[in-house]
Each structure stands twice: as structure tokens, then as C-alpha cells.
């Protein structure tokens, strides 16, 4: 399916054939709207898929928000971009008659998915955060009761310190999200173990 430029984001939309919740796919740094489509199709067969491309460029690499250095986020830009993405998702839901989606985000995409949960909880039904870290130095107060979140971290991830991933998992649990955090014997890249756990988590929602 061709990518469309609509509601501020170049994206791919694949209409679903089943009744399950739609899936919002959020790529990592340097990715695009097609990167996670195979994962979405595998994890949620028959679900509608919404896959936008990040609007920020770091050199030539698309991202969803700016960073000042590795692991140091531009929080003002993060907040603004989170609201832009939230409005895009709401517009897609209205246009296609969709329920709140489950986000599946990798790295930079996982971080903005976490930000969506914390800043705009009405937009998502839950999220799978693959290689995520805490997006805010001081997380906002929010009620995530009833939302399920899976976090998959890599024990040998050179990009994300274990403490920042653990802090995000604690933050989400403390504000009511049903949070499952698994640390895998992996680096920053995804492995078959990630996909197996992600599929089992999604099927058990």
C-alpha cells in the first residue's frame, strides 16, 4: 500500500479484516512508515495498522522528536511532537471509525509511545515498548488504570541504560498501568524472543 501524506504525517494505513483493536506502529531512529509493518501483521493479524513516519530529521534519519545527545531528549520538542502525533491518531480514528489503538514502538518510537501514554492517555488502549527509556526527567501525573503495557529491554543494550528502562517501568506501574517488564539477553536490536513475547502478550490482552 502506498504511503500517504495526510494530517501532517506521511503514513501507511492498512484496513483490518477483524474486530481486534487497531495497532499504531512507531519506528526507531532512521526508520520509516514501512519498518514495523511485518511485525504488526505478525503480532496482530487482521488488525488495522497505522504506521506514521517521524517528522523530525537527525541528519537524514527520521525520528519522532529531537534529542540533544544520545539519551538526552529535547523535552519541549518531545511534548510538542507528542501532541502532534496524538492529534494525527485521533484524526485517523475519526476518519476510519477506529477504536483506540495499541501502540507498538521500537526505540525512538517506543519513547514517544510512552510519552503518549503519559501526556495523552485517551489516545491509546495500551502499548508494547521495545527498547524504551524514561522520556521525562519528571514524569507527569496521570491515571493509566486499565491500560496494559509490555516493556522489552535488552540486557546488553549499549544505548539504553538499565536504570532508565527500569524507571519507566516503575513510573507506568505507579500510575496504574498493568506493566510487564522483561529484560532479554539481547542488545538494542530485536530478536525472535522479542517477537515471541510480543505475540503472546498481544494475544493474551
Tell me what the structure shows:
The protein has an eight-stranded mixed beta sheet with strand order 1-2-4-3-9-10-11-12, with helices on both faces. The chain has one domain: 3-Layer(aba) Sandwich (Rossmann fold). Helix 2 (75-96) packs across helix 3. Helix content is 32%, strand content 25%. It has helices at residues 37-43, 75-96, 108-119, 162-174, 192-203, and strands at residues 4-6, 9-14, 23-26, 49-52, 56-58, 61-63, 67-69, 72-73, 102-106, 126-130, 148-154, 178-184. The relative contact order is 0.14. By secondary structure, it is of the alpha/beta class.
CATH architecture: 3-Layer(aba) Sandwich
Query: Main sheet?
Result: 8 strands, mixed
CATH topological fold name:
Rossmann fold
Query: Which radius of gyration do the C-alpha atoms yield?
Result: 15 Å
What low-confidence regions span 5 or more consecutive residues with pLDDT below 50? none
CATH classification class = Alpha Beta
Number of helices: 5
Q: How many structural domains? A: 1
Quote the beta fraction: 25-35%
Number of strands: 12
Structural class: alpha/beta
Q: How confident overall, as mean pLDDT?
A: 94
Strand line-up across the major sheet: 1-2-4-3-9-10-11-12
CATH superfamily, by name, is: Alpha/Beta hydrolase fold, catalytic domain
Helix content: 25-40%
Order of helices and strands: EEEHEEEEEHEHEEHEH
Distance between the termini: 28 Å
In short:
This protein is an alpha/beta fold. The chain has helices at 37-43, 75-96, 108-119, 162-174, 192-203, and strands spanning 4-6, 9-14, 23-26, 49-52, 56-58, 61-63, 67-69, 72-73, 102-106, 126-130, 148-154, 178-184. The chain is built from five helices and twelve strands.
Amino acid at each position: 500500500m502506498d504511503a500517504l501524506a495526510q494530517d501532517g504525517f506521511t503514513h501507511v494505513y492498512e484496513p483490518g479484516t477483524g474486530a481486534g483493536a487497531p495497532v499504531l506502529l512507531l519506528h526507531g531512529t532512521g526508520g520509516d512508515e514501512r519498518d514495523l509493518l511485518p511485525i504488526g501483521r505478525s503480532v496482530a493479524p487482521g488488525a488495522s495498522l497505522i504506521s506514521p513516519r517521524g517528522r523530525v530529521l537527525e541528519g537524514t534519519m527520521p525520528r519522532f522528536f529531537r534529542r540533544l545527545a544520545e539519551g538526552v531528549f529535547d523535552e519541549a520538542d518531545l511534548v510538542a511532537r507528542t501532541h502532534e502525533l496524538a492529534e494525527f491518531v485521533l484524526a485517523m480514528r475519526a476518519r476510519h471509525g477506529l477504536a483506540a489503538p495499541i501502540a507498538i514502538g521500537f526505540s525512538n518510537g517506543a519513547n514517544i509511545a510512552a510519552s503518549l501514554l503519559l501526556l495523552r492517555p485517551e489516545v491509546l488502549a495500551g502499548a508494547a515498548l521495545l527498547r524504551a527509556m524514561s522520556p521525562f526527567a519528571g514524569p507527569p501525573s496521570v491515571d493509566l488504570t486499565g491500560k496494559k503495557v509490555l516493556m522489552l529491554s535488552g540486557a546488553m543494550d549499549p544505548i539504553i541504560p538499565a536504570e532508565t528502562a527500569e524507571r519507566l517501568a516503575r513510573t507506568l506501574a505507579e500510575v496504574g498501568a498493568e506493566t510487564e517488564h522483561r529484560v532479554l539477553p539481547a542488545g538494542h536490536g530485536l530478536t525472535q524472543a522479542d517477537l515471541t513475547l510480543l505475540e503472546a502478550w498481544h494475544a493474551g490482552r
